[in-house]
Amino acid sequence: MKIIGISTSPRENSNSRIALEKALETVKSKGFTVELFDLNLLNIQTCQADDYCLEHEGCCVLDDDMQAIYGALRDCHGVILATPIYMGNVSSNAKIFIDRLYAVLQAVDSYNVAGKKFSVIASQAAVDPPMYEYIKHNLETTVDIFRGIGFDVEDVVLLIGNDTAGAIVDKEDQLNKAVMVGNKIVR
Ligand SMILES: Cc1cc2nc3c(=O)[nH]c(=O)nc-3n(C[C@H](O)[C@H](O)[C@H](O)COP(=O)(O)O)c2cc1C
Questions:
Q1: I need a surface site. Which of 28, 98, 135, 185 has the fewest CB within 10 A?
Q2: Cβ of 83 less than 6 Å from ligand 1
Q3: Residue 93, ligand 1, Cβ within 6 A
Q4: Ligand 1 centre and the CA of 139: distance in Å?
């Protein structure tokens, strides 16, 4: 069984990607296979709202790298989406991916969505509680979309205080949270 990781940060030594890789290492240690897609290195266009997917069993007309992710989504046991927080919400790379799940919504049976797990790991700079609560709320609103599609949302983890690239590497508590995400998605 496979878990797919979706990394959406554009930066080198990305905190969210480091956490995602930690989670995927844990997944591998449990005997699952993993596949990591780095959206910033792929050619993925925004949804064109042509409704082609409505009439073609959830197939998207766009011939881009999202086709490989659609294929992986059909077969996988779960998904871990990693995102930096940008202006209070998920990254634009993450949002493009989420919009492209519109095709999955049109054919949940063909994508075998029922029973698939979905977790989110997000990293932000701010540490103050009001900002944390505000962004946590935005993330919860986003994952409601995954629930609406039919995914079983497992974890929504918001890692804080990561104001520089790679800041997470010395934060044992945050790396442990990533391990927990990996453990829970294969339970
Ligand atoms: C365009 C942009 C917008 C950002 N907006 C926020 C924000 O609203 N709140 C926050 O706490 N940090 C914000 N940050 C900081 C990042 O969320 C933080 O550095 C995060 O750890 C980046 O994750 P990454 O290393 O995986 O890219 C922003 C950074 C950028 C470049």
A1: 28
A2: no
A3: no
A4: 14
> Using an 8 Å Cβ cutoff, are 127 and 108 in contact?
no
CATH number for 2-185: choose from 3.20.20.60, 3.30.465.10, 3.40.50.880, 3.40.50.360.
3.40.50.360
In sign, the C-alpha dihedral spanning 86, 82, 151, 173 is negative
Segment 130-150 mean pLDDT: 95
Q: What is the 86 CA–ligand 1 centroid distance (Å)?
A: 5
Q: Cα separation of 131 and 154, whole Å?
A: 23
pLDDT tens column, 168-183:
999 999 999 999 999 9
Cβ atoms within 10 Å of 35's Cβ, excluding its own: 15
- Chain mean position to CA 49: 22
Alpha carbon distance, N-terminus to C-terminus of the chain:
12
Q: What is the mean pLDDT of residues 150-170?
A: 98
Please report which confidence band the pLDDT of residue 185 belongs to, taking 50, 70 and 90 as the band edges. Answer: very high
Banded model confidence at residue 85, pLDDT cuts 50, 70, 90: very high
Mean pLDDT of 38-67: 98
Token code pair at residue 92: 């634009």
